[in-house]
Design brief:
Elements (H helix, E strand, L loop, with lengths): L1 E7 L4 H12 L4 E8 L5 H8 L4 E3 L8 H12 L6 E4 L8 H6 L4 E5 L11 H7 L4 E8 L9 E8 L6 H24 L3 E4 L2 E4 L2 E2 L7
Parallel strand pairs: 1-2, 1-4, 2-3, 4-5
Antiparallel strand pairs: 5-6, 6-7, 8-9, 9-10
Helix pairs in contact: 1-6
Bound molecules: glycinamide ribonucleotide (GAR).
Glycinamide ribonucleotide binds next to helix 1, strand 5 and helix 6.
């Protein structure tokens, strides 16, 4: 079956959505490693509960981003993952990592890209008075949060929203969208080609599927 490596830094709710989809919705994939840059990431407990292999590579043990990225590549490359899934992984990646897994590296980002790359996306959407917010899944390239879009899920911004309520609504959308996109990969239907993102027989528009 399709082999995944999942990279996390935090609570791992998106990791959990993938675990659940594999266990209960027939997602034809297996998670060969959950890799965290933080030993205290909540997602590591979720991984262990599901019987998954885990590893921690602490970025603070490396004096450059490249050295950290190389250590991750060295850990992952022998597994030859079909897809590397960034799921709340909060380190900026260098070409050392991106090139090692180009065409098979996915990220989820909590905004409707190209709006709000980077951090504090929910606060920024609220401050801007947006009526819509959401999440995006894209292939990762060397440009931060800038790779070709695969799919986006919009959610409404409601009148009394604050960061907490809005982020919760976005996360619910994330937990539906990421397993769907990973399923397309596992079913060998989704590829990054020289012409763009291809799903089945069609080339997706620059926004991805919305
Ligand atoms: C998710 O909302 C994800 O979109 C975001 O971190 C959260 C992780 O939650 N990712 C980024 O901000 C990437 N720059 P989780 O650990 O519960 O899956």
């Amino acid at each position: 079956s399709h082999s995944l490596a999942v990279l996390i830094s935090g609570s791992g709710s998106n990791l959990q959505a993938l675990i659940d989809a594999i266990e209960h919705q027939g997602l034809p994939a297996r998670i060969d490693l959950v890799l965290s840059n933080r030993a205290d990431a909540g997602g590591l407990a979720r991984a262990k509960s599901a019987g998954l292999a885990t590893a921690v590579i602490d970025h603070r043990d490396h004096d450059s981003r490249e050295s950290f990225d190389q250590a991750m590549v060295d850990r992952l490359a022998p597994l030859a993952p079909d897809t590397v899934v960034l799921a709340g992984f909060m380190r900026i990646l260098t070409p050392v990592f991106v090139r090692a897994f180009s065409d098979r590296l996915l990220n989820i980002h909590p905004s409707l890209l190209p709006k709000y790359p980077g951090l504090h996306t929910h606060r920024r959407a609220l401050d801007a008075g947006d009526s819509q917010h959401g999440c995006s899944i894209h292939f990762v390239t060397e440009e931060l949060d800038g790779g070709p879009l695969i799919a986006q899920a919009p959610v409404p911004v409601l009148p009394n929203d604050h960061e907490e309520t809005l982020s919760k609504r976005v996360q619910q959308a994330e937990h539906r969208l990421y397993p769907d996109v990973v399923r397309w990969r596992a079913e060998r239907r989704l590829f990054l080609t020289a012409n763009g993102v291809q799903l089945d027989d069609r080339l997706l528009p620059p926004t991805g599927l919305v």
